[in-house]
Fold this protein.
Amino acid sequence: MAAAKKDKDFSPEIVALYCRQCLDAEERPQEGARQTKGFTARLVMLPCSGKVEAYQLLKILEQGADGVLLVGCPENACRFLVGSRRAEKRLTRAGQLLDLVNMGAGRLALKRAADLTTADILALAGQLAEQVKTLGPSPMKGDSL
Amino acid sequence: MIVAEWKPIPELLASLKGHKNVLLVGCATCVAECAAGGEREVLTLAPVLKMGLKDQGQEVNIITRTLERQCEPEFVEELSEIAPQVDAIMSIACGIGMQLVAERFIDLPLYPGVNTTSLAIREQAGLWTARCAACGDCMLGETFGLCPVARCAKSLMNGPCGGTRKDGKCEVDENTECIWRLIVERAEAKGRLEDLVKVRPSKNWSNSGHGGPKRMLREDLR
């Protein structure tokens, strides 16, 4: 019981992959690690969320991240038309595989939004961090980020 | 193309039990086209296996390679440098490629990562349907380009059977067209319906697997 509580108290490492088209026009793209209260986020900018493949999401988790957030444009506002929808399919596929190996699809999340700031992305990463806390630290931690 | 599907993940994990260094090898040809064994699938399966084995308390190092064609000895030879570093090979190529790898690296256990299922086309994005059964006596000229051996659930030579659904689908699978209905429709459209009632010689099954393992020899190429 104590161990479970301890697990929930850990500070998750979240990799946040975000489409640059989601950013507010005035916002300067940010990348790299951000230490925030309760979790750490590593920001990675993408040309489109549809650029992400299922294997990349899995690889990030295999290397020890506690969760992966994918931020894409609203479904009908993708600059590349189907990128945001492709991202959802790939994330679903990766989630199904994670469930099969008891990692939990809950370590992945897709959020769709527009005109975001870096603070907004960090807030979305924070939501995933709270979700990941219920799953506990990644068992793959060690080789890590 | 030759179509294959991943074996169930628990089966794959069970086969790798006790191994510490595994070579996961794919093929960039047919099985890549059917999204089962190409580079993308190798890169997808490797972390899944690693996480799954970790969940079972087993640490494993998985080395990944994707050969241009796993059914050609010249390409399989590319694995010769990496093979001494592993204690098992898992292949996600078709059964042909797997056997060539097993034959070349006979001291290593080889585990199949996929089941080879059919010779098929990509009918739509994400949908592959069988088109050929490699029967060895092609009759497409008599059936208006539609193969009843591969595409009729009963491989009938003189269909349709009585089980065609009202919507023209096969009684075995509601998503599959009755191929004999399509053959009849195509014959009608060409005004050659009477061709289908002609008596044809018996099909020569001895040129397929029914005649024992197939062996083709061309002296001029040796």
